[in-house]
Amino acid sequence: MTPTVRTRVAIVGAGPAGLLLSHLLDAVGIPSVVIDQRSRDEIESTIRAGILEQGTVELLDTLGDASRVRTVGNRHDGIELRFAGEGHRIDFPSLVGRAVWLYPQHEVLKDLIAARLAAGQDLRFGVTAESVQDAETDRPRVIARDADGQPFEIEAEFVVGSDGSRSVARAAVTGSSTGGYFREYPFAWFGILCEAPPSSDELIYSNSPDGFALISQRSASVQRMYFQCDPETDTAAYSEAQLWDELQKRVPGTTLKEGPIFQRDVLRFRSFVAHELLRGRVALVGDAAHTVPPTGAKGMNLAIADVRLLADALGALLLDGDARPLETYPERALHRIWKAQHFSWWMTSLLHVAPDATDFDRRRQLGELRSVVESDHGRAYLAEAYTGWPQS
Ligand code: DHB
Q1: Which of 18, 149, 366, 371 measures 20 to 30 Å from 156, CA to CA?
Q2: Which of the following is catalytic: 16, 23, 76, 226?
């Protein structure tokens, strides 16, 4: 007999989506079990993006003091778009009355994990989900192996796949591990972390003839920067001096403050939306349901927007026996997902130089950038999407 753990909601994946969902469910009295194949240390040390929409910050406020966004993170009231040798500030509060916070995703994860463990959450690291079964019954199951490789099952009233872009749960919903709308891009980002003071007060998104660069931050003494590269680039291909040259030539007008580079990575660009987000009693959220290219930092924010909708829908189903909010979860989530897909694609195509770009393409792109920054409506469109549309 395979050992079976019983709970109301089984959550596969302890990223921001899965952990926040367990918190929101707990807040209305619904117990859950959260599993993740990674160790706690791996989850807490993986470097991801750093920008939180205002709505994301407000939802994290429900963790109370456990959320350090407002104390350790930094509010940013604008970004700079730089092109053709000039910087153009997009001022969020005056355009849309909102802001964003710079607070890295792994810090969000540290806060969530500490808060969930303090609340007594059944949260299991090093546990691998092999498949999700019986989606179309009222007892869906997760077939898993514990940290010692021993098989066990989680039987629940509902299973949520928050297990990232290589989701195992996805097959139970879409019928295949890939099934979705998909787009690739002919470039990637070379990301670095360095020990240096900030080179600018706010983030700089720069379109230059040599390609895109993003000057972001992490803290007073650690900075995050990216430049457009070929997706096949090897992180060891550049010396530190070459990395600074690549970055510096893409932000003419700013002298970057250099310091030791202690981490490098290449981020692939993909746009993906699963064909289905719900089958019976299994739903997908976050990267298991969709991925966006990184420009504009929508990934985690979108995952959290999914979770807000799904938590309410599961409350209605499991507390009141009302399945209607769940039935409309895909449609309501996809409304925002496709807007964010468009925004991420648009920011990407606005700022990057495609390898096969012609002179026409370059001049058209500068025309598009000018249309945005020279118009109150253009700047407001960007500010509204960047700070996050209000939750529906
Ligand atoms: C960061 C990443 C992004 O994709 C972005 O648009 C802004 C900031 C970051 O990692 O800091």
Answers
A1: 149
A2: 76
Task: From 283, 213, 273, select the one nearest 248 (Cα to Cα).
Answer: 213
From ligand 1's centre to the CA of 10, what distance in Å? 31
**Residue 226 designated active-site:** no
Q: With contact defined as beta carbons under 8 Å apart, do 26 and 115 qualify? A: no
* pLDDT at res. 111: 98
Q: Using 70 as the pLDDT threshold, list the residues of the chain that sit under it.
A: 392
User: In the chain, where are the structural domains located?
Assistant: 4-76+100-181+271-346, 185-269+354-387
Is the CB of 291 within 6 Å of ligand 1? no
How many C-beta atoms lie closer than 10 Å to residue 76's C-beta?
Answer: 21
What is the whole-number distance in angstroms between the Cα of residue 366 and the centre of ligand 1? 22
Task: Identify each DSSP E strand in 198-320 by its residue range.
Answer: 204-208, 211-215, 222-229, 261-274, 278-279, 282-284, 290-291
Round to whole Å and give the CA distance between 111 and 65: 9
Q: 185-269+354-387 sits in which CATH class? A: alpha beta
Q: Which option is the CATH number for 4-76+100-181+271-346: 3.40.50.12710, 3.60.20.30, 3.50.50.60, 3.90.226.10?
A: 3.50.50.60
